[in-house]
Amino acid sequence: MSFKSKGEQSSRSFVSKKWTFLLCLGCFCAGMLFTNSNRVETVPQSKGIMRATAMEAEKQKLISEDCNLKAVSIKEEKHVSKDIIGEVFKTHHAIQKLDKTISNLEMELVAARAAQESLLGGSPLSTDANKAKSSRKRKYLMVIGINTAFSSRKRRDSVRATWIPQGEKRKKLEDEKGIIIRFVIGHSATTGGILDRAIEAENKKHGDFLRLDHVEGYLELSAKTKIYFATAVALWDADFYVKVDDDVHVNIATLGETLVRHQKNPRVYIGCMKSGPVLSQKGVRYHEPEHWKFGEAGNKYFRHATGQLYAISKDLASYISINQHVLHKYANEDVSLGSWFIGLDVEHIDDRRLCCGTPPDCEWKAQAGNVCVASFDWTCSGICKSADRIKEVHRRCGEGENALLGFTF
């Protein structure tokens, strides 16, 4: 091989090594540059991910706080609602207590007025009014007013001989059982006449009359009923006030047991409820002069208790007493009483034991353990010939003295 050829070979080898070195260096630099660019791009991406994670966590925190606030709000609302319900109950109780206080004050006012009017007018009521102060200190179960007339002496004596205790027994009935019983009568058209003197003499003997400031008369029964309740509620603080006719047999203990079941109701009206026809024809018994108020001919009355015996609670008796000057009077007293309660929140109790028939009806019921409260004949609106027959009714249908002695309320 020549020298020239050796030189060319060495030169090519040198060039080849030089370019190889440069190429390697360029590749290294390019790799470094590419790596740096990747790092620069990765950092913002990681920062974005971190920011997104932080935002998500913040959202979760806000949602959690919102839920907690809602839960707290719900708890507070429940607590507030409980407080409101509690306040409503307290307010309702306070209103009831206030109503009772007002009712008692009205009762005291009525009693004071009745006593004052009786004293100024010289009415026989003044005797009972003097006892009102002491009698109103205690509570009675019921006041039984027996409607009677001047001509009914025999009826009264027959009632005294049967279902009304006499003397010390009647006083014991008042003191221990809280039951007041009085014959109810007004005065004659000629005050102080022979009829009034006869009643005064009878009252001195028995002491069982309640005299009203009222002129007696059959057509005045509605007025008498109104005055009776007003007078009785002024004299005695009782749970119930009863009206019964003097030709009806009554079992007092059974009546008391019946009324006790309704003591919690402040406005109750108890009796044998009926709805008879409105009689427009003149001259017939129970004719209704104001029949046109009840609509077309042939219409019936509203529901009301039959007049032989019924009972009303204290609140209703007080209502009658307070509003007696504006309460309308119909021809029939039982209709009048029923009309006074229309529009009021009154519970009507229809108890058929308050209107049993005379034997054998009341006797069969007594034998079956369902003792009647009151017995009479529907055909006579009382016991037919009661002065003669009431003793037989009492013997066959009476509850016995032991029932009254064992009765408590």
TrEMBL record:
Q: Which residues form the DUF4094 domain?
A: 16-115
Q: Which GO terms describe its cellular component?
A: Golgi membrane
Has UniProt tagged this entry with the keyword Transmembrane?
A: yes
- Names of required cofactors: Mn(2+)
Superkingdom field:
Eukaryota
Give the UniProt subcellular location, in the record's own words. Golgi apparatus membrane
What class does this enzyme belong to in the EC scheme?
Answer: transferase
Which GO molecular function, any one, fits this protein according to its record?
galactosyltransferase activity
* UniProtKB keywords: Glycosyltransferase, Golgi apparatus, Manganese, Membrane, Signal-anchor, Transferase, Transmembrane, Transmembrane helix
Which InterPro entries did the record assign?
DUF4094, Glyco_trans_31
Q: In which pathway does it act?
A: Protein modification; protein glycosylation
Chief place where the protein resides = Golgi
What is the topology of this protein in the membrane according to its UniProt annotation?
Single-pass type II membrane protein
User: What EC number(s) is this enzyme filed under?
Assistant: 2.4.1.-
Identify its protein family. Belongs to the glycosyltransferase 31 family.
What is this protein identified as?
Hexosyltransferase
What species is this protein from?
Answer: Hibiscus syriacus
